[in-house]
Predict the structure.
Amino acid sequence: MIEVTIASIRVSLMSQNRIVELREEGGDRILPIWIGPFEAESITLQLQSVDVPRPLTHDLLKSVIETLGGEVLHILISGLEKSTYFARIVLDVDGDTIEVDSRPSDAIALAVRVNAPIYVAEEVMDQAGLRPEEEVRLNEQETQGGDQPVADEDLGAFKDLIEGLDLDTLLGN
Protein backbone atom coordinates (compact mmCIF):
# COMPACT_ATOMS: atom_id res chain seq x y z
CA MET A 1 0.00 0.00 0.00
CA ILE A 2 1.19 3.47 -0.90
CA GLU A 3 0.16 6.36 1.32
CA VAL A 4 -1.14 9.39 -0.57
CA THR A 5 -2.40 12.88 0.20
CA ILE A 6 -4.91 15.01 -1.65
CA ALA A 7 -2.86 17.23 -3.94
CA SER A 8 -5.77 19.04 -5.58
CA ILE A 9 -9.32 18.89 -6.80
CA ARG A 10 -9.71 20.17 -10.34
CA VAL A 11 -12.69 21.10 -12.42
CA SER A 12 -12.98 19.37 -15.77
CA LEU A 13 -13.55 21.67 -18.71
CA MET A 14 -15.30 18.81 -20.52
CA SER A 15 -18.04 17.98 -18.00
CA GLN A 16 -19.42 18.72 -14.55
CA ASN A 17 -17.10 16.11 -13.07
CA ARG A 18 -14.07 16.89 -11.01
CA ILE A 19 -10.70 15.20 -10.69
CA VAL A 20 -9.18 14.52 -7.29
CA GLU A 21 -5.43 14.14 -7.53
CA LEU A 22 -3.80 11.92 -4.95
CA ARG A 23 -0.03 12.47 -4.56
CA GLU A 24 2.25 9.64 -3.50
CA GLU A 25 3.97 10.32 -0.14
CA GLY A 26 7.72 10.37 -0.64
CA GLY A 27 7.32 10.00 -4.40
CA ASP A 28 6.35 11.99 -7.43
CA ARG A 29 3.40 10.06 -8.86
CA ILE A 30 -0.12 11.48 -8.98
CA LEU A 31 -3.26 9.34 -9.20
CA PRO A 32 -6.08 11.28 -10.90
CA ILE A 33 -9.59 10.02 -10.14
CA TRP A 34 -12.74 11.43 -11.74
CA ILE A 35 -15.38 12.21 -9.10
CA GLY A 36 -18.78 13.88 -9.11
CA PRO A 37 -19.35 17.53 -8.22
CA PHE A 38 -21.17 16.78 -4.96
CA GLU A 39 -18.38 14.55 -3.66
CA ALA A 40 -15.80 17.13 -4.73
CA GLU A 41 -17.71 19.81 -2.84
CA SER A 42 -17.95 17.60 0.23
CA ILE A 43 -14.19 16.96 0.24
CA THR A 44 -13.37 20.62 -0.44
CA LEU A 45 -15.67 21.93 2.30
CA GLN A 46 -13.98 19.69 4.86
CA LEU A 47 -10.45 20.52 3.66
CA GLN A 48 -11.26 24.21 3.95
CA SER A 49 -12.91 23.75 7.38
CA VAL A 50 -16.20 25.22 6.18
CA ASP A 51 -19.09 24.66 8.58
CA VAL A 52 -22.39 23.65 7.01
CA PRO A 53 -25.73 24.24 8.73
CA ARG A 54 -26.83 20.59 8.37
CA PRO A 55 -24.71 17.45 8.17
CA LEU A 56 -23.81 16.24 4.70
CA THR A 57 -24.03 12.56 3.80
CA HIS A 58 -20.37 11.99 4.67
CA ASP A 59 -20.87 13.70 8.03
CA LEU A 60 -23.77 11.33 8.65
CA LEU A 61 -21.60 8.33 7.75
CA LYS A 62 -18.92 9.51 10.18
CA SER A 63 -21.53 9.97 12.91
CA VAL A 64 -23.06 6.50 12.36
CA ILE A 65 -19.65 4.79 12.48
CA GLU A 66 -18.66 6.64 15.66
CA THR A 67 -22.06 6.13 17.33
CA LEU A 68 -21.79 2.39 16.73
CA GLY A 69 -18.34 2.35 18.33
CA GLY A 70 -16.36 2.02 15.13
CA GLU A 71 -13.24 3.79 14.01
CA VAL A 72 -12.01 4.37 10.45
CA LEU A 73 -8.47 2.99 10.35
CA HIS A 74 -7.78 3.99 6.75
CA ILE A 75 -9.19 3.90 3.27
CA LEU A 76 -7.69 2.05 0.34
CA ILE A 77 -8.09 2.70 -3.36
CA SER A 78 -8.02 -1.01 -3.98
CA GLY A 79 -8.69 -1.66 -7.64
CA LEU A 80 -9.09 -0.35 -11.15
CA GLU A 81 -11.19 -2.17 -13.74
CA LYS A 82 -12.27 -0.73 -17.08
CA SER A 83 -11.53 2.87 -15.97
CA THR A 84 -13.53 2.43 -12.74
CA TYR A 85 -11.75 2.74 -9.41
CA PHE A 86 -12.76 0.73 -6.36
CA ALA A 87 -12.14 1.54 -2.71
CA ARG A 88 -12.42 -0.03 0.71
CA ILE A 89 -13.14 1.71 4.00
CA VAL A 90 -11.23 -0.20 6.68
CA LEU A 91 -12.90 -0.02 10.09
CA ASP A 92 -12.11 -1.24 13.59
CA VAL A 93 -15.34 -2.35 15.28
CA ASP A 94 -14.94 -3.90 18.74
CA GLY A 95 -11.43 -5.09 17.88
CA ASP A 96 -12.47 -6.63 14.56
CA THR A 97 -11.23 -5.23 11.26
CA ILE A 98 -14.06 -4.80 8.79
CA GLU A 99 -13.71 -3.68 5.17
CA VAL A 100 -16.60 -1.94 3.45
CA ASP A 101 -16.83 -1.52 -0.34
CA SER A 102 -17.04 2.12 -1.40
CA ARG A 103 -16.64 4.52 -4.26
CA PRO A 104 -13.26 6.26 -3.92
CA SER A 105 -14.89 9.69 -3.72
CA ASP A 106 -17.07 8.70 -0.76
CA ALA A 107 -14.16 6.98 0.99
CA ILE A 108 -11.96 10.07 0.53
CA ALA A 109 -14.73 12.38 1.78
CA LEU A 110 -15.02 10.21 4.90
CA ALA A 111 -11.24 10.01 5.38
CA VAL A 112 -10.85 13.79 5.45
CA ARG A 113 -13.59 13.99 8.10
CA VAL A 114 -11.98 11.49 10.45
CA ASN A 115 -8.33 12.29 9.60
CA ALA A 116 -7.74 8.74 8.38
CA PRO A 117 -4.83 7.90 6.11
CA ILE A 118 -5.52 7.30 2.42
CA TYR A 119 -3.71 4.47 0.65
CA VAL A 120 -3.53 3.25 -2.93
CA ALA A 121 -2.80 -0.37 -3.80
CA GLU A 122 0.59 -0.64 -5.49
CA GLU A 123 -0.87 -2.29 -8.60
CA VAL A 124 -3.36 0.59 -8.99
CA MET A 125 -0.61 3.21 -8.69
CA ASP A 126 1.58 1.23 -11.11
CA GLN A 127 -1.30 1.00 -13.59
CA ALA A 128 -2.71 4.56 -13.39
CA GLY A 129 -0.24 6.77 -11.53
CA LEU A 130 1.19 9.66 -13.52
CA ARG A 131 4.58 11.27 -13.20
CA PRO A 132 4.83 15.09 -13.48
CA GLU A 133 5.56 15.07 -17.23
CA GLU A 134 2.53 12.82 -17.81
CA GLU A 135 0.38 15.13 -15.69
CA VAL A 136 1.34 18.05 -17.94
CA ARG A 137 0.03 16.08 -20.94
CA LEU A 138 -3.20 15.33 -19.02
CA ASN A 139 -3.63 19.04 -18.27
CA GLU A 140 -3.02 19.94 -21.90
CA GLN A 141 -5.73 17.47 -22.97
CA GLU A 142 -8.16 18.99 -20.43
CA THR A 143 -7.36 22.51 -21.61
CA GLN A 144 -7.97 21.44 -25.20
CA GLY A 145 -11.23 19.77 -24.22
CA GLY A 146 -9.67 16.32 -24.31
CA ASP A 147 -9.48 16.48 -28.09
CA GLN A 148 -7.56 13.74 -29.75
CA PRO A 149 -6.58 13.72 -33.44
CA VAL A 150 -9.45 12.35 -35.49
CA ALA A 151 -8.81 10.26 -38.56
CA ASP A 152 -10.44 11.41 -41.82
CA GLU A 153 -12.46 8.20 -42.04
CA ASP A 154 -14.08 9.03 -38.66
CA LEU A 155 -15.43 12.25 -40.17
CA GLY A 156 -17.22 10.62 -43.11
CA ALA A 157 -20.75 11.97 -42.56
CA PHE A 158 -19.51 15.42 -41.56
CA LYS A 159 -17.12 15.59 -44.50
CA ASP A 160 -19.98 14.83 -46.93
CA LEU A 161 -22.18 17.47 -45.27
CA ILE A 162 -19.50 20.16 -45.38
CA GLU A 163 -18.51 19.40 -48.96
CA GLY A 164 -22.18 19.59 -49.99
CA LEU A 165 -22.74 23.06 -48.51
CA ASP A 166 -23.27 25.91 -50.94
CA LEU A 167 -21.76 28.88 -49.09
CA ASP A 168 -23.06 31.37 -51.66
CA THR A 169 -26.64 30.31 -50.94
CA LEU A 170 -26.07 30.29 -47.17
CA LEU A 171 -24.55 33.77 -47.23
CA GLY A 172 -27.23 35.14 -49.51
CA ASN A 173 -24.84 35.87 -52.40
In short: The chain has a mean pLDDT of 83. The longest strand covers residues 70-81.
